[in-house]
Specification:
Elements: H1 19-43, H2 49-76, H3 80-101, H4 104-115, H5 122-125, H6 128-143, H7 150-180, E1 182-185, H8 196-209, E2 218-221, H9 224-233, H10 237-248, H11 258-261, H12 264-280, H13 286-291, H14 299-330, H15 339-353, H16 358-361, H17 367-382, E3 385-388, E4 400-405, E5 411-420, E6 430-435, E7 438-439, E8 445-446, E9 449-456, H18 469-486, H19 508-514, H20 520-523, H21 538-548, H22 552-571, H23 581-592, H24 608-611, H25 621-639, H26 644-655, H27 663-671, H28 678-683
Parallel strand pairs: 5-9
Antiparallel strand pairs: 1-2, 3-4, 4-5, 6-9, 7-8
The protein binds zinc ion.
Length: 690
């Protein structure tokens, strides 16, 4: 019996794949890859692209093609059997990746191609994208410490392993501290202002969690939906202050269970280790190490970028805070706003000023029409045609399959579109690759395939599925990632599509495409009332625009506070003085914050993005990518939002090039200059002089 996950050269056979196929297929591919690599290395040089790098690429591709449908099924039609098989493979895949990353002979073989050991200067004759693959591979090998002298290598490994334990502990402390706190209220009056949905959530939590006690009442927890609901809606100011205090002291020396869960000492040690690791690799500090794989050149460049934004956004942020304070006083609120008042009065002000809700817009966004509108928008921009293809097997009857052809009628990509939320499907929206574009050794071309997944609310009763404007934007966002993956012309999988694209540049195409959800010319293509066919009324449209800019100054300075804190903490670390975490944060707040938190605030102790996630010295990436996408879009504002020439330029310089070039070079080729922060500031309403 053949295993449908092995040697699949066409689309995954979703009607045949079962959980029993998964582990044997992965085991077999890993074993065959290991044997082939060992044999090739034993054979020795000369190493060339054709006899070494290409076969390595093909082996990686075969593994990806087996694993991507598995990982996708696990996310969208999860079952106990599937989960067991999926989880059994995870450590095997991670061991395999680590093994390759630490294989010095493998590193030397790539180095040999780079240095032209095959005789002559092969490297110089390789195409740009192949050179880029070799360079990236060597860079990543060096960054994993493979090139270090024996003693340093051992030290590097020990530090890495300690770091991984500490970051896991950091995340666990945040989780445990979050879960440990709760407040059960039995007096309904204290919950005044909270919507029914929040009360239902508190009630449910009380019934589930209050095991030994009375199961009545409403139980508030520190989980995000609960915390946000209290901050936004609870009229009881003392209640808000209490929940705020609990939230911002989590996992700190001033919170409960300080002895077990204080992240303070962990932050010190994590920063010390990162600094030492960076030093072993030849960097002055960890910020430099982090930027080695990113679009930004240096910490100084990022700092200038952030400071510049902060300077521009601060006046508007202060003005917004003053407006909010005046509004709160008029509403009988406090004389001086505290952090636990911001979301509460912010929501009231938003409602007073823009009585627009997602519900009002929904009738104008029937799902089918929005999808058709999206395809029309990308047709006008890039000349591509999206057509549905029937008869393709999928994992659920709701899933649709499409093909993309370009102006010349060439098939460029294919994708599965899975829009509705359902049971056993992971929440959120994402694009994942199913097949990479690459030129095979036999000369044939592998066409890229994408999974586009959303979780839109299924239709109620006889109404067609209607989307909120947020959902429309999400669809455009993910489709932007999809186009980056599918429209690539790069033929080496290491840098085709989104592969090898720097972290701080990868959100450019996705955020870029969102812009067409906000312009009249594009909305007129699809935003029509599902019953009357009426176009989106101008008043609703204008309200939507104004609401988009609401409190954007305050939001911007808050993001900048986090970004600056993260970067400076990693850049200025000094073993002689330690990390000075609180001191650094206080200093940055004096510079950019408009409202200073109380002394007990230990926000940093729960900042998992940088202490437990992949954002260390990289949190700025959010803003960086926003600047790129707003600036790229501004060329369309200048030339016309459906200008064909401009669309083609974006296609040719950005979407088709994947990771084959430095992102700054690509951006400049499209925009004709370096990125400017002004378009983003205008989009946020921070700059209004044009
Ligand atoms: Zn994204």
């Amino acid at each position: 019996m053949s295993n449908p996950l092995l040697n699949n050269t066409d689309l995954p056979a979703f009607d045949q794949i079962t959980s029993e196929h998964i582990e044997p297929a992965i085991d077999q591919i890993l074993a065959e890859n290991r044997a082939a690599i060992a044999q090739r290395l034993e054979q020795g040089g000369p190493f060339t692209w054709d006899n070494f790098a290409e076969p390595m690429d093909a082996m990686g591709d075969r593994l990806d093609r087996a694993w991507s449908p598995v990982s996708h099924l696990n996310a969208v039609v999860n079952s106990p059997e599937l989960r067991v098989a999926y989880e059994a493979c995870l450590p095997k895949l991670s061991d395999y990746a680590t093994e390759l990353g630490q294989n010095e002979a493998l590193f030397r073989a790539y180095e040999a191609i780079h240095q032209g050991d095959g005789g002559g200067d092969e490297f110089a004759t390789l195409s740009g994208e192949r050179r880029k693959v070799i360079e990236n591979t060597l860079r990543d090998f060096r960054l994993s410490g493979v090139d270090l002298p024996a003693e340093d290598k051992a030290r590097y490994k020990a530090l890495k392993s300690e770091l991984s334990q500490l970051t896991t502990k950091f995340a666990n402390n945040v989780l445990d501290a979050t879960n440990a706190w709760s407040l059960t209220l039995t007096d309904r009056n204290r919950l005044a202002g909270l919507p029914e949905s929040a009360l239902g959530m508190f009630r449910q939590t009380a019934e589930r969690e209050n095991q030994d006690e009375d199961k009545g009442g409403w139980r508030i927890s520190l989980a995000a939906p609960s915390f946000i609901a209290v901050m936004t809606y609870a009229e009881d100011r003392d209640l808000r202050a209490m929940v705020y205090h609990a939230f911002v002291t989590r996992a700190s020396e001033v919170g409960p269970h300080a002895r077990e869960w204080d992240n303070g000492p962990l932050m010190e040690r994590i920063l010390a280790i990162r600094h030492e690791l960076a030093g072993l690799l030849g960097f002055t500090n960890y910020a430099e190490r982090s930027l080695a794989t990113k679009m930004a050149d240096s910490p100084a460049q990022v700092l200038e970028f952030l400071n510049n934004l902060a300077e521009q956004a601060a006046p508007r942020a202060r003005q917004e805070l003053d407006e909010l304070a005046a509004f709160a006083r008029d509403a009988g609120g406090p004389d001086a706003l505290k952090p636990w008042d911001l979301a509460f009065y912010g929501e009231r002000l938003r409602q007073a000023r823009f009585d627009i809700s997602q519900e009002q817009l929904k009738p104008y966004f029937p799902a089918d029409r929005v999808v058709a509108g999206l395809f029309e928008v990308v047709n006008r921009l890039f000349g591509i045609r999206v057509t549905e293809r029937d008869g393709i097997t999928t994992w659920h009857p709701d899933v649709r399959f499409y093909e993309i052809h370009d102006r010349d009628g060439e098939l460029r990509g294919q994708f599965y579109l899975d829009l509705s939320a359902r049971q056993h499907k992971r929440g959120g929206a994402w694009m994942a690759d199913c097949v990479q574009r690459r030129r095979r050794a036999d000369g044939s071309l592998q066409i890229p395939v994408a999974f586009l997944t959303c979780n839109f609310t299924p239709p109620v009763g006889d109404e067609p599925p209607l989307l909120t404007h947020d959902e429309v934007t999400t669809l455009f966002h993910e489709f932007g990632h999809g186009l980056h993956h599918m429209l690539t012309k790069v033929e080496t999988s290491g840098v085709s599509g989104i592969n090898g694209v720097a972290w701080d540049a990868v959100e450019l195409p996705s955020q870029f495409l969102e812009n067409w959800c906000w312009v009249r010319e594009a909305l007129d293509l699809f935003a029509r009332h599902h019953q009357t066919g009426e176009a989106l009324p101008q008043t609703l449209f204008e309200n939507m625009q104004a609401a988009r800019q609401f409190q954007s100054g305050m939001q911007t300075v808050r993001q900048l506070e986090f970004s600056l804190f993260d970067l400076i903490l990693h850049q200025e670390y000094d073993p002689a003085t330690g990390a000075r975490v609180q001191e650094t944060l206080d200093r940055i707040r004096r510079q950019v914050a408009v409202l200073h938190p109380p002394e007990y605030n230990r926000f940093q102790n729960g900042f998992s993005h940088i202490f437990a996630g992949g954002y260390a010295a990289g949190y700025y990436s959010y803003k960086w990518a926003e600047v790129l996408s707003a600036d790229a879009f501004s060329r369309f504002e200048e030339d016309g939002v459906f200008n064909e020439r401009t669309g083609t330029d974006f296609l040719v310089h950005i979407l088709e090039r994947g990771g084959s070039e430095d992102p700054m070079t690509l951006f400049k080729a499209f925009r004709g200059r370096e990125p400017s922060i002004e378009p983003l500031l205008r989009q946020h309403g921070i700059l209004t002089d044009r």
